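Board work, copied verbatim: OpgC domain-containing protein
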Amino acid sequence: MFTRTMRALIRFDRDLRVDLVRGLALWAIFVNHTPGNWLGVVTPRNYTLSDATEAFVLLAGYAAGLAYGRTMDRQGWFFAASRVMGRVFTLYVAHIFLLVVFTAQVGFSAERLDAAAYLDELHLDPFAADPYRALLEALLLRYQPSFLNILPLYITVLAMFAVAMPLIRRPWLMLGLSAALWLAARVFDITLPSWRGEDWFFNPLAWQLLFFIGCALGYSPPGGGSVSVPWRPWAGVLCAVLLVAGAAMTVLIYFLWDFAEARLPAFAPFLAAIDKASLHPLRLGTMLALTYLVAHLVPREAGWLRSRAAVVMVLMGQQALPVFCAGIALSFAGRIALEVAEGPLMQVAVNVVGLAALVGIAVLTAWYGIEKYAPRRAAPSPLPAGAPPDRG
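↓ predict structure ↓
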């Protein structure tokens, strides 16, 4: 019954691979943001040099190129850019709402549980020391507490896309300029200003490259000629080698760091320099390798994409924004639960309830969208067929 309901809410005219991966990324974000969650050991961040954030940004770019590129071709750049900025405003409102909810949630928990360390750990202490200034800087996106830095990145790169959208018709020029900006941001340590002198956790001037790669892959010009990377066996082998090497480096970084420092003194500094803030080339390459393999090895019409297990993640992926916001709030609630009662039963409860809540949010928002945009039935005419209207 519930599976049939979800199937009725899913748009099957989309590329379900994209929605499935985005749904998995949203689930991984919830798990990874819940300290102490045992499921964190199976999420991709422990075995690849990229994680759910890279997938989220790349697929956000893909969706933007697909939807707004088509709008630009039909109705012009100004109209399409206005639609993009409308989406930017929606994301901004969602970010501020999430900021308020998350701050209240953490502050209340810190007071009730006498755990002031929560505020310091999650970089929410400015709300205690200087609340009015902190609120102002948060509204300007110059202050971003922990866990609340993905949406500001998304807002910024989407606003950049609104300006650069005409370049999508010349994708290689767009990607060349984007790559130049990424390189300059990394080499010269260029980022956007922040309140207390700390760099943005995700430097948008670097991460925009991954977003624009997604835009180029998603855009389909009216006359054909979209960006495509055909399958080559040697390229597939190269991607696999990169992923295996990345897995080995990830294990060294997160699980065997003492061994790396002691036994690999020349290699350890290189591993330590694989940063996330400015999108290290290996993190970028890992995400592109995964994308290449998934795009070519998973058929678009694969039957299992419509299976009972897959449709859960597909529906979550199609309702990404509310599911993401709910996941961030639920992750802290899950953390509190795991700290209050450790053990397997609580682990199961946190993950089952968390996933059920995320799916429930996806179902409600999808249902609301269908009800909102479904064509209304015309009211029956009180006049008999052929009768002239009353002209008063």
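Residues 2-371 form one domain.
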